[in-house]
Design a protein that fits this description.
This protein is an alpha+beta fold. It is about 45% helix and about 20% strand. It has seven helices and eight strands, in the order E-H-H-H-E-E-H-H-E-H-E-H-E-E-E. Strands 1, 2, 3, 4, 5, 6, 7 and 8 form an eight-stranded mixed beta sheet that branches. The chain is globular and about 50 Å long.
Length: about 200
């Protein structure tokens, strides 16, 4: 396919949030965090905007040239993270202060995130619904995975659906431990990929 990829800048924030909102509007985890569809439509973009801001400030966001897909990456060093990550509380405060699930999802995924080795962390990837199934997401991820392979760096993500888990398995990710079962909600799949050599 050979898509061109550009790196997002601060001015691209609303575009990235828009792609993410479209891509994740009916996602099982987003539907668990915000069960009421009309309410989800009202606050979901604010919730996802926290992830976008973190990636803009601390990592990198790749955008497919036709703006059909975005990928949010962080570089995670080895070693235990600092206590008291403020991001989950910020997710709740920003999007929906009365909804504890906004914060809980971040705390639960943070608790299972591995920190024994430095790695690339695919925080989120979103493909506009009308473009899903074309291989754009795999190509967007693949560009970073090629760099990981060259540098001998593993990669990590949490798949939010069985469908996305299957895509990530095709790219070399494997389930790390067992699925994270959200309380009264869907499973999330922590996945790890060792760099490929040769």
């Amino acid at each position: 396919m050979g898509i061109r990829i550009q790196q997002a800048e601060r001015r691209d924030r609303e575009l990235v949030v828009s792609v993410m909102e479209e891509a994740f509007h009916d996602d099982p985890v987003s539907s668990w965090v915000f069960p009421d569809e009309a309410h989800r439509r009202a606050v979901h973009g604010k919730f996802l905007g926290v992830f976008v801001d973190v990636a803009l400030d601390e990592g990198r966001i790749d955008i497919a040239e036709d703006e059909a897909a975005v990928a949010l990456w962080l570089q995670v060093p080895a070693g235990a993270p600092e206590e008291g990550d403020p991001t989950p509380a910020l997710m709740r405060e920003t999007a929906d202060p009365d909804n504890e699930r906004c914060e809980l999802v971040g705390r639960l995924t943070g608790a299972i995130h591995p920190h024994d080795r430095a790695h690339a962390y695919l925080l989120m990837i979103g493909v506009r619904p009308g473009r899903q199934g074309e291989g754009i997401g795999a190509e967007l991820i693949g560009a970073e995975l090629e760099r990981c392979d060259r540098e001998g760096l593993p990669a990590y993500l949490e798949a939010s659906s069985a469908r996305s888990r299957t895509l990530y398995e095709r790219l070399g990710f494997r389930l790390l431990g067992r699925a994270l079962d959200l309380p009264d909600g869907p499973p999330m799949y922590p996945m790890w990929r060792e760099p490929r050599t040769g």
